[in-house]
Amino acid sequence: MQTKQDARIKIAVQKSGRLTEHSMELLVRCGLSYSRGKDRLICYGENMPVDVLLVRDDDIPGLVQENICDLGIAGLNIIEERRLELIERGETKLFEQVSVLDFGQCRLSFGVPEDMPFDGPESLRGTRIATTYPRIVKDYLQRNGIEAKVVEFSGAVEIAPSLGKADLVCDLVSSGETLRAHQMYEALTILESRAALIRTPVEIPPEKAQWMKRLLMRIEGVLQVRESKYIMLHAPRARLKEITALLPGSEAPTIMPLEGRDDKVAVHAVCRENVFWETLEKLKEAGASSMLVLPVEKMLA
Ligand code: PRP
Ligand code: ZN
Protein backbone atom coordinates (compact mmCIF):
# COMPACT_ATOMS: atom_id res chain seq x y z
CA MET A 1 0.00 0.00 0.00
CA GLN A 2 1.20 3.49 -0.77
CA THR A 3 1.49 5.82 2.18
CA LYS A 4 0.94 9.54 1.82
CA GLN A 5 4.67 10.13 2.04
CA ASP A 6 5.24 8.09 -1.13
CA ALA A 7 2.92 10.38 -3.03
CA ARG A 8 5.20 13.36 -2.52
CA ILE A 9 7.65 14.46 -5.19
CA LYS A 10 11.23 14.74 -3.98
CA ILE A 11 13.63 17.15 -5.61
CA ALA A 12 17.36 17.16 -4.88
CA VAL A 13 18.93 20.62 -4.82
CA GLN A 14 22.46 21.79 -3.98
CA LYS A 15 22.76 22.49 -0.26
CA SER A 16 24.98 25.54 -0.55
CA GLY A 17 26.70 26.82 -3.62
CA ARG A 18 26.26 28.51 -6.94
CA LEU A 19 22.95 26.76 -7.76
CA THR A 20 21.17 26.86 -4.40
CA GLU A 21 19.51 30.25 -4.49
CA HIS A 22 18.47 30.08 -8.14
CA SER A 23 17.12 26.55 -7.76
CA MET A 24 14.91 27.50 -4.81
CA GLU A 25 13.80 30.65 -6.59
CA LEU A 26 12.75 28.59 -9.62
CA LEU A 27 10.59 26.35 -7.41
CA VAL A 28 9.06 29.35 -5.66
CA ARG A 29 8.23 30.85 -9.05
CA CYS A 30 6.44 27.56 -9.79
CA GLY A 31 4.17 28.36 -6.86
CA LEU A 32 5.90 26.36 -4.12
CA SER A 33 5.87 27.71 -0.58
CA TYR A 34 7.77 25.67 1.96
CA SER A 35 8.91 25.43 5.55
CA ARG A 36 12.36 24.30 6.43
CA GLY A 37 12.79 21.17 8.58
CA LYS A 38 14.63 21.35 11.92
CA ASP A 39 17.80 19.88 10.44
CA ARG A 40 17.41 22.46 7.63
CA LEU A 41 18.15 19.75 5.06
CA ILE A 42 14.58 19.25 3.88
CA CYS A 43 12.15 21.92 2.73
CA TYR A 44 8.60 20.68 3.08
CA GLY A 45 6.18 21.97 0.48
CA GLU A 46 3.15 23.52 2.17
CA ASN A 47 0.86 24.00 -0.78
CA MET A 48 2.14 21.32 -3.18
CA PRO A 49 3.12 17.68 -2.51
CA VAL A 50 6.73 18.56 -3.26
CA ASP A 51 9.68 18.33 -0.87
CA VAL A 52 13.19 19.63 -1.52
CA LEU A 53 16.21 17.72 -0.25
CA LEU A 54 19.26 19.90 0.20
CA VAL A 55 22.33 17.80 -0.55
CA ARG A 56 25.89 18.00 -1.85
CA ASP A 57 25.76 18.78 -5.57
CA ASP A 58 27.96 15.78 -6.38
CA ASP A 59 25.34 13.47 -4.85
CA ILE A 60 22.41 14.76 -6.90
CA PRO A 61 22.71 12.60 -10.06
CA GLY A 62 23.14 9.47 -7.91
CA LEU A 63 20.07 10.23 -5.78
CA VAL A 64 18.01 10.67 -8.93
CA GLN A 65 19.45 7.64 -10.70
CA GLU A 66 18.64 5.46 -7.67
CA ASN A 67 15.13 6.92 -7.60
CA ILE A 68 15.56 8.24 -4.04
CA CYS A 69 14.62 11.59 -5.57
CA ASP A 70 12.27 12.02 -8.51
CA LEU A 71 13.97 15.16 -9.79
CA GLY A 72 17.27 16.93 -9.30
CA ILE A 73 18.87 20.21 -10.26
CA ALA A 74 22.61 19.99 -10.90
CA GLY A 75 25.30 21.45 -13.10
CA LEU A 76 25.91 19.85 -16.50
CA ASN A 77 29.51 19.33 -15.35
CA ILE A 78 28.42 17.03 -12.51
CA ILE A 79 25.71 15.40 -14.60
CA GLU A 80 28.19 14.56 -17.37
CA GLU A 81 30.84 13.23 -14.95
CA ARG A 82 28.30 10.93 -13.26
CA ARG A 83 26.87 9.86 -16.59
CA LEU A 84 30.31 8.70 -17.74
CA GLU A 85 30.83 6.96 -14.40
CA LEU A 86 27.52 5.10 -14.61
CA ILE A 87 28.25 4.00 -18.16
CA GLU A 88 31.68 2.80 -17.03
CA ARG A 89 29.99 0.75 -14.30
CA GLY A 90 27.71 -0.80 -16.90
CA GLU A 91 24.53 0.77 -15.52
CA THR A 92 21.77 0.70 -18.07
CA LYS A 93 19.22 2.85 -16.21
CA LEU A 94 20.59 6.39 -16.12
CA PHE A 95 18.81 9.53 -15.00
CA GLU A 96 17.14 11.47 -17.80
CA GLN A 97 17.82 15.10 -18.62
CA VAL A 98 14.52 17.01 -18.75
CA SER A 99 15.72 20.51 -19.56
CA VAL A 100 18.65 22.86 -19.39
CA LEU A 101 17.94 25.79 -17.06
CA ASP A 102 18.86 29.45 -17.36
CA PHE A 103 21.27 29.83 -14.46
CA GLY A 104 24.54 28.46 -13.09
CA GLN A 105 26.60 29.29 -16.17
CA CYS A 106 30.26 28.33 -15.82
CA ARG A 107 32.96 26.49 -17.77
CA LEU A 108 35.08 23.44 -17.20
CA SER A 109 38.49 24.63 -18.35
CA PHE A 110 42.17 23.86 -18.16
CA GLY A 111 43.90 26.25 -15.78
CA VAL A 112 47.58 26.64 -16.46
CA PRO A 113 50.33 28.23 -14.28
CA GLU A 114 51.28 31.70 -15.50
CA ASP A 115 54.83 30.63 -16.44
CA MET A 116 53.68 27.68 -18.53
CA PRO A 117 52.99 28.42 -22.19
CA PHE A 118 49.89 26.87 -23.69
CA ASP A 119 49.45 26.30 -27.39
CA GLY A 120 46.30 24.24 -27.72
CA PRO A 121 45.49 20.64 -26.73
CA GLU A 122 48.95 19.43 -27.80
CA SER A 123 50.43 21.30 -24.83
CA LEU A 124 48.66 18.80 -22.57
CA ARG A 125 50.73 15.88 -23.81
CA GLY A 126 52.71 14.19 -21.04
CA THR A 127 51.44 16.54 -18.31
CA ARG A 128 49.79 15.72 -14.98
CA ILE A 129 46.31 17.23 -14.73
CA ALA A 130 44.58 17.68 -11.37
CA THR A 131 40.78 17.57 -11.48
CA THR A 132 37.59 16.55 -9.72
CA TYR A 133 36.22 15.58 -13.14
CA PRO A 134 38.53 12.69 -14.11
CA ARG A 135 36.10 11.04 -16.53
CA ILE A 136 35.28 14.18 -18.51
CA VAL A 137 38.98 15.01 -18.75
CA LYS A 138 40.01 11.47 -19.78
CA ASP A 139 37.22 11.44 -22.32
CA TYR A 140 38.45 14.75 -23.75
CA LEU A 141 42.08 13.55 -23.89
CA GLN A 142 41.04 10.32 -25.56
CA ARG A 143 38.93 12.08 -28.17
CA ASN A 144 41.90 14.29 -28.99
CA GLY A 145 44.40 11.43 -29.01
CA ILE A 146 46.48 12.91 -26.21
CA GLU A 147 48.28 10.96 -23.49
CA ALA A 148 48.46 12.68 -20.13
CA LYS A 149 48.11 11.70 -16.50
CA VAL A 150 44.86 12.58 -14.78
CA VAL A 151 45.24 13.06 -11.02
CA GLU A 152 41.90 12.81 -9.26
CA PHE A 153 41.22 15.29 -6.45
CA SER A 154 38.11 15.51 -4.31
CA GLY A 155 38.40 19.29 -3.83
CA ALA A 156 40.82 22.24 -3.69
CA VAL A 157 42.20 21.31 -7.11
CA GLU A 158 43.72 24.75 -7.57
CA ILE A 159 46.47 24.15 -5.02
CA ALA A 160 47.73 20.99 -6.78
CA PRO A 161 50.33 22.71 -9.02
CA SER A 162 51.91 24.70 -6.17
CA LEU A 163 52.10 21.49 -4.11
CA GLY A 164 53.90 19.84 -7.02
CA LYS A 165 51.14 17.26 -7.37
CA ALA A 166 50.21 18.29 -10.90
CA ASP A 167 51.37 20.55 -13.74
CA LEU A 168 47.98 22.11 -14.38
CA VAL A 169 44.32 21.76 -13.42
CA CYS A 170 40.97 21.20 -15.08
CA ASP A 171 38.29 22.87 -12.99
CA LEU A 172 35.15 24.96 -13.04
CA VAL A 173 35.72 28.59 -13.87
CA SER A 174 33.18 31.34 -13.53
CA SER A 175 34.74 34.73 -12.82
CA GLY A 176 38.27 33.32 -13.09
CA GLU A 177 39.07 34.71 -9.64
CA THR A 178 40.10 31.34 -8.16
CA LEU A 179 42.57 30.65 -10.98
CA ARG A 180 44.05 34.15 -10.77
CA ALA A 181 44.44 33.87 -7.00
CA HIS A 182 46.57 30.78 -7.64
CA GLN A 183 48.72 32.30 -10.39
CA MET A 184 47.00 30.41 -13.19
CA TYR A 185 45.15 31.43 -16.33
CA GLU A 186 42.26 29.85 -18.19
CA ALA A 187 43.77 28.17 -21.22
CA LEU A 188 41.06 26.04 -22.85
CA THR A 189 37.40 25.26 -22.16
CA ILE A 190 36.21 21.66 -22.59
CA LEU A 191 32.63 21.97 -21.33
CA GLU A 192 30.17 24.86 -21.14
CA SER A 193 28.06 24.19 -18.09
CA ARG A 194 24.88 25.44 -16.52
CA ALA A 195 22.16 24.04 -14.32
CA ALA A 196 19.95 21.30 -15.70
CA LEU A 197 16.90 19.40 -14.50
CA ILE A 198 17.15 15.61 -14.37
CA ARG A 199 14.56 12.99 -13.53
CA THR A 200 14.51 9.41 -12.34
CA PRO A 201 14.75 6.64 -14.95
CA VAL A 202 11.86 4.90 -13.19
CA GLU A 203 8.27 5.46 -14.27
CA ILE A 204 6.50 7.97 -12.02
CA PRO A 205 3.83 6.18 -9.93
CA PRO A 206 0.26 7.23 -10.75
CA GLU A 207 -0.32 9.03 -7.43
CA LYS A 208 2.57 11.37 -8.25
CA ALA A 209 2.14 11.61 -11.99
CA GLN A 210 -0.35 14.44 -12.07
CA TRP A 211 1.63 16.78 -9.85
CA MET A 212 4.81 15.80 -11.66
CA LYS A 213 3.24 16.85 -14.95
CA ARG A 214 2.04 20.12 -13.46
CA LEU A 215 5.40 20.89 -11.92
CA LEU A 216 7.32 20.21 -15.14
CA MET A 217 4.85 22.36 -17.07
CA ARG A 218 5.26 25.20 -14.60
CA ILE A 219 9.05 24.97 -14.80
CA GLU A 220 8.86 25.22 -18.59
CA GLY A 221 6.48 28.15 -18.15
CA VAL A 222 8.84 29.99 -15.82
CA LEU A 223 11.77 29.47 -18.19
CA GLN A 224 9.74 30.73 -21.14
CA VAL A 225 8.47 33.76 -19.27
CA ARG A 226 11.95 34.73 -18.16
CA GLU A 227 13.14 35.05 -21.68
CA SER A 228 9.92 36.50 -23.01
CA LYS A 229 9.09 40.16 -23.39
CA TYR A 230 5.97 41.99 -24.41
CA ILE A 231 6.79 44.69 -26.91
CA MET A 232 4.59 47.60 -28.05
CA LEU A 233 5.48 50.10 -30.73
CA HIS A 234 4.15 52.36 -33.45
CA ALA A 235 5.11 51.49 -37.00
CA PRO A 236 4.64 53.20 -40.35
CA ARG A 237 2.18 51.08 -42.33
CA ALA A 238 4.53 51.09 -45.30
CA ARG A 239 7.33 49.40 -43.33
CA LEU A 240 5.20 47.01 -41.27
CA LYS A 241 6.62 43.87 -42.87
CA GLU A 242 10.19 44.93 -42.26
CA ILE A 243 9.45 45.87 -38.65
CA THR A 244 7.58 42.70 -37.67
CA ALA A 245 10.40 40.64 -39.19
CA LEU A 246 12.79 42.29 -36.72
CA LEU A 247 10.81 41.17 -33.64
CA PRO A 248 12.79 38.28 -32.13
CA GLY A 249 10.92 34.98 -31.78
CA SER A 250 7.43 36.37 -32.10
CA GLU A 251 4.52 34.66 -33.79
CA ALA A 252 1.62 36.65 -35.28
CA PRO A 253 1.81 40.14 -33.73
CA THR A 254 -1.37 42.15 -33.09
CA ILE A 255 -1.76 45.13 -35.41
CA MET A 256 -4.12 47.91 -34.29
CA PRO A 257 -5.16 51.20 -35.88
CA LEU A 258 -4.10 54.47 -34.27
CA GLU A 259 -6.85 57.02 -33.83
CA GLY A 260 -6.56 59.76 -36.44
CA ARG A 261 -3.46 58.32 -38.12
CA ASP A 262 -3.69 56.48 -41.42
CA ASP A 263 0.04 56.22 -41.98
CA LYS A 264 0.87 54.44 -38.70
CA VAL A 265 -0.35 51.42 -36.73
CA ALA A 266 0.30 50.03 -33.24
CA VAL A 267 2.11 46.67 -33.06
CA HIS A 268 1.95 44.46 -29.96
CA ALA A 269 3.86 41.20 -29.78
CA VAL A 270 5.21 38.61 -27.36
CA CYS A 271 8.88 37.99 -28.12
CA ARG A 272 10.08 34.62 -26.93
CA GLU A 273 13.63 35.83 -26.82
CA ASN A 274 15.24 38.67 -24.97
CA VAL A 275 14.83 42.05 -26.63
CA PHE A 276 18.22 43.72 -26.65
CA TRP A 277 19.08 47.39 -27.18
CA GLU A 278 20.47 46.44 -30.61
CA THR A 279 17.05 45.17 -31.66
CA LEU A 280 15.37 48.39 -30.53
CA GLU A 281 17.94 50.42 -32.42
CA LYS A 282 17.28 48.45 -35.60
CA LEU A 283 13.53 48.88 -35.12
CA LYS A 284 14.02 52.61 -34.76
CA GLU A 285 16.05 52.72 -37.97
CA ALA A 286 13.18 50.90 -39.68
CA GLY A 287 10.83 53.68 -38.59
CA ALA A 288 9.37 52.32 -35.36
CA SER A 289 8.62 54.78 -32.55
CA SER A 290 7.05 54.87 -29.04
CA MET A 291 8.64 51.53 -28.19
CA LEU A 292 7.89 49.86 -24.86
CA VAL A 293 9.32 46.54 -23.67
CA LEU A 294 7.56 44.89 -20.72
CA PRO A 295 8.37 41.78 -18.72
CA VAL A 296 5.87 38.90 -18.88
CA GLU A 297 4.47 37.72 -15.55
CA LYS A 298 2.94 34.33 -16.38
CA MET A 299 2.40 32.34 -19.56
CA LEU A 300 0.48 29.19 -20.36
CA ALA A 301 0.32 27.89 -23.89
C1 PRP B 1 34.31 26.07 -8.46
C2 PRP B 1 35.77 25.81 -8.71
C3 PRP B 1 36.45 27.02 -8.16
C4 PRP B 1 35.40 28.11 -8.35
C5 PRP B 1 35.70 28.94 -9.57
O1 PRP B 1 33.91 25.53 -7.27
O2 PRP B 1 36.21 24.62 -8.10
O3 PRP B 1 36.75 26.85 -6.80
O4 PRP B 1 34.16 27.48 -8.49
O5 PRP B 1 34.91 30.10 -9.63
P1 PRP B 1 35.56 31.51 -10.04
O6 PRP B 1 36.15 31.36 -11.39
O7 PRP B 1 34.40 32.48 -10.03
O8 PRP B 1 36.58 31.84 -8.99
P2 PRP B 1 32.35 25.50 -6.83
O9 PRP B 1 31.97 26.78 -6.23
O10 PRP B 1 31.51 25.03 -7.95
O11 PRP B 1 32.32 24.46 -5.65
P3 PRP B 1 32.45 22.84 -5.69
O12 PRP B 1 33.21 22.49 -6.92
O13 PRP B 1 33.17 22.55 -4.43
O14 PRP B 1 31.05 22.32 -5.69
ZN1 ZN C 1 30.62 20.20 -5.36
Describe what this molecule looks like in 3D.
The structure is a single chain. This protein has 301 residues and is α+β, with helices and mostly antiparallel strands. The chain folds into three domains: 9-104 and 195-225, Periplasmic binding protein-like II (D-Maltodextrin-Binding Protein, domain 2, 3-Layer(aba) Sandwich); 106-192, Periplasmic binding protein-like II (D-Maltodextrin-Binding Protein, domain 2), CATH 3.40.190; 228-295, Alpha-Beta Plaits (2-Layer Sandwich). It has helices spanning 20-29, 60-65, 76-88, 134-143, 177-181, 206-226, 240-246, 277-285; strands at 9-14, 34-36, 42-45, 50-55, 71-75, 96-100, 106-113, 128-131, 149-152, 168-173, 184-193, 195-199, 229-236, 254-258, 261-271, 289-295. The chain has a seven-stranded mixed sheet with strand order 2-3-4-1-5-12-6. The protein has a five-stranded mixed sheet with strand order 9-8-10-7-11. Strands 14-15-13-16 form a four-stranded antiparallel sheet, with helices on one face. A hairpin with a 2-residue loop joins strand 14 and strand 15. The longest helix is centred in the last third of the chain and has 21 residues, at 206-226. It is globular. The structure holds 1-O-pyrophosphono-5-O-phosphono-alpha-D-ribofuranose (PRP) and zinc ion.
Strand order in the sheet with the most strands: 2-3-4-1-5-12-6
Label the CATH architecture of the largest domain: 3-Layer(aba) Sandwich
Shape: globular
Taking all Cα atoms into account, the compactness measure Rg is: 24 Å
Number of strands: 16
What small molecules accompany the polymer chains?
1-O-pyrophosphono-5-O-phosphono-alpha-D-ribofuranose, zinc ion
The number of distinct helices, counting runs of at least 4 residues, comes to 8
CATH 4th-level superfamily of the largest domain: Periplasmic binding protein-like II
Number of domains: 3
CATH topology (level 3) name of the largest domain: D-Maltodextrin-Binding Protein, domain 2
